[in-house]
């Protein structure tokens, strides 16, 4: 199964050029049953990445362009009265899908952003007092523009915490950019991609992640990372238990992508930034990357006695 997942990564890499590590992180996030936040400038390939992931994993896909005048009903759906049957029925919103692209999520107001909270955490939504289960699997890939840009609303901490990982694609290398300029439109290529895995195989991969072994020493390493984030005074708020569980799941998924059935400290270190940077803020006002770097440098892999 790991071989099939690697083929999926390679297929996406043929469309989203020069970003193999970010693609591997995105796939690891998906098979770890997490949601992904991509923060970058417009035009960096965020939407193309989401399209390609939906195609290679055979997922039902919906895209929502978030705007400042959007309402929660535009995402969740609305009850409509049927005059012939004299009853209301639900007109489902785009959240009822397997992969939802929430494009430029931070251009919507906090009220609309919050409409996704229950869906992301519980895989269900409550409408008119009735709970409705979302399709399985259910992933949210959200994109956001830098908060320095006009017309953006920063995501609150409670919303950020629903995302297992946050990544950034960044500018391509000169060689990759030349290939992009000389080739055909990458979004068109993404739309014409063939599936690599079916939904059943993806679900099997997600189940395999839970079976990847994490030794007591590895668990101890993660716990010391979490404790240091809380007690060192380097951060305004430390990592929550949810963040620790997410870090372990992400490390297991990364190990599975490498073809291993056990987690190493290196697996934890690779995913630490994407999993924790959007949850940590340095007490001295440092950026996310410096916060993660401080954490890695301060906590040794082997416990000191």
The number of strands is 9
What is the total number of structural domains? 2
Strand order of the largest sheet: 2-5-8-1-9
The number of helical segments is: 14
Portion in strands: 5-15%
The level 1 CATH classification of the largest domain is Alpha Beta
SSE arrangement, N to C = HHEHEHEEEHHEEEHEHHHHHHH
Please outline the helices and strands.
Elements: H1 2-13, H2 20-31, E1 36-39, H3 46-56, E2 61-65, H4 73-76, E3 77-82, E4 87-92, E5 99-103, H5 110-114, H6 117-122, E6 124-127, E7 130-133, E8 139-144, H7 157-160, E9 165-167, H8 174-182, H9 186-191, H10 199-211, H11 216-231, H12 241-257, H13 265-276, H14 288-298
Parallel strand pairs: 1-8, 1-9, 2-5, 5-8
Antiparallel strand pairs: 3-4, 6-7
Description of the molecule:
With about 300 residues, the protein is of the alpha/beta class. About 45% of the residues lie in helices and about 15% in strands. Strands 2-5-8-1-9 form a 5-stranded parallel sheet. The protein has a two-stranded antiparallel sheet with strand order 3-4. A two-stranded antiparallel ribbon has the order 6-7. Helix 2 crosses helix 12 and helix 11 crosses helix 12.
